[in-house]
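Fold sample X.
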Amino acid sequence: MVALTITSLVLGALFSLAAGSKQLAVRTQSTLQDTMAARAQINSSLLDNEYRELEPIIGNTRFQTESGDILPDVLRRTAPMNDLLQTFRIVDEDTDEVINGVRWIRLELPQ
């Protein structure tokens, strides 16, 4: 009787560990998919520029990219430049999380 009780307690603990492990694996997979989608949107935003022809390859409408201000020039610049830094932000429509970043943009005329 004692051996059956101990065996049932050990088996119950093992089954609860296995169930918890499976739930953790499902949550981890979901988090990984969300992270990969966000990273793909960041990469797309870094490549996107109104003067470059970039075809949209991501069919995900969850993330929206908003262009920001052009950062001020460096004080020691010696020649006009076509490439300047611009801020951008990516907004997650589902969770309202915001990812801020900076990207290079190419202007048509040097400044």
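Fold sample Y, listed below.
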Amino acid sequence: MPQPKKKAYQVIVDQIKEYFLNGELQPGDKLPTERELASRFNVSRTSVREALRKLEIKGFIEIKQGSGSFIKTAESHTLGEELSSTIINTEKKLIYEMLELRQALEVECAFLASRRATSVDLERISQALDMMDQGKNDVELGIQADLSFHHNIVLASHNSIFLQLFQTLSEHMQDTIRATRRQRLEDPERTQETIDEHKKIYLAIASGDANQAKQLMENHITQIRRELTESLLSHIGEKNN
């Protein structure tokens, strides 16, 4: 079902918030005139006035008669907090959606890899594991090793469609791995546990135990989702205390 089209005033509200987030607008800055905003967004001045009223009600701007509209200095943190919350929630949603995709894709690939992997495939997966060991104290190396590990399992499935899908989504996959590793490795003890999880998956694939490989990959991704949920709830609890 298509998303309902945003009203003109909401587009303006969202854009002004984005300008603030990007640093193009600072607390105390004066907004363009109604005429300039109407021209910039190709909307009526009525829509501009409605947008400004919404922002004023939320305490994001102050409208001074005869002077114009200004980003409120005292309340600017409110806007920042709302934007940060929106961004965090959006990122969380995307991460969860990517994990759902990974669960569908990689669980099956682990199953297939355990039946189809060649000695070359197994060597590539093993090399990725070695890189993960080397990347314990190197964030970027760890991320690349993690991505390589999962990529090589997809390669080992010898399913060209799965491989194309993984490669198409590799940039999003990398962002997701970066975010989930950041959550998981806040506790140094989780570093080795994470590597051990990957080693168990590799050993199941190498031994040809398809059901075990499938189960371990499913457990791995499910655990990541559980930890992300716990982390989110923990942050919400801290904020409310």
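Sample Y note: DSSP finds ten helices and two strands in the chain.
Also: The longest helix spans residues 76-116.
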